[in-house]
Amino acid sequence: MEEPSTDIGLIQKCQEGSLEAFDELVLKYHKKVFNVAYRLLNNYDEANDIAQDVFVRAFRAIKGFRFQAHLFTWLYRITVNLCKNRIKVLARERRRTTSLDEPIITEEGQMNRQVAQDKPLPSDELINKERQELIARALASLQDEFKTAVVLRDIEGLDYAEIARILKINIGTVKSRLHRARMLLQEKLKGAF
């Protein structure tokens, strides 16, 4: 697949310093970048932060863009790498937890910690919403390599070759990861539908 000529022209203008051209690229690809980040992180705010970071990095590096990959492949690769790094940071933060039994020291003395309770789903919540949440949780529980493959193929609709370029793996590995991920999802969702 050839790079769209509009992207080539915009990239060249960006390389010449045009902020307007870069704004056009952001407008064109922001939603796709955000969607990938959201699917990988399953968190709206984190996905927004990642999307912003992707375009900050792209802005800084666009002058060095060599047209060896499609622009969206390059942006997706940045997105996937930033998400992987963020997942590692979040995992480290989860390991550093505070005991809920440990009181909080205030000026007035000690206070017991209170945990906010999850709100139950409203009774009028649509079944479709519940299914989407089940699928999102099942997807979030997959190992990163499987989750990334599913997001890029089944949600973003990229072809195997494009996924292979983004992840820097061969097409056979992409297909294998997708097959394994789909089997895991099927097992996790068994009986839910």
Please describe what this structure looks like.
This protein has helices spanning 5-15, 19-41, 44-61, 71-95, 127-140, 144-155, 160-167, 171-188; strands at residues 104-106, 109-111. It has 193 residues and is mostly helical. The protein has two domains: 1-96, RNA polymerase sigma factor, region 2, helix turn helix motif (Rna Polymerase Sigma Factor, Chain: A), CATH 1.10.1740; 125-193, Arc Repressor Mutant, subunit A, CATH 1.10.10. A two-stranded antiparallel sheet has the order 1-2. A hairpin with a 2-residue loop joins strand 1 (104-106) and strand 2 (109-111).
Low-pLDDT parts are 119-125
CATH architecture level-2 label of the largest domain: Orthogonal Bundle
Return Rg in Å: 21 Å
CATH superfamily of the largest domain: RNA polymerase sigma factor, region 2, helix turn helix motif
Strand content: under 5%
Structural class: mainly alpha
Main-sheet strand order equals 1-2
The overall number of domains is: 2
Summarize model confidence as the mean pLDDT.
83
SSE pattern, N- to C-terminal = HHHHEEHHHH
N- to C-terminal distance: 38 Å
| CATH fold annotation of the largest domain | Rna Polymerase Sigma Factor, Chain: A
Biggest sheet statistics: 2 strands, antiparallel
CATH class of the largest domain: Mainly Alpha
Helix segment tally: 8
The percent range for helix content is 55-70%
What global shape is seen? globular
> What's the total number of strands?
2
Brief summary:
The protein is mainly alpha-helical and 193 residues long. The protein has helices at 5-15, 19-41, 44-61, 71-95, 127-140, 144-155, 160-167, 171-188; strands at residues 104-106, 109-111. The model is unreliable at 119-125 (pLDDT under 50).
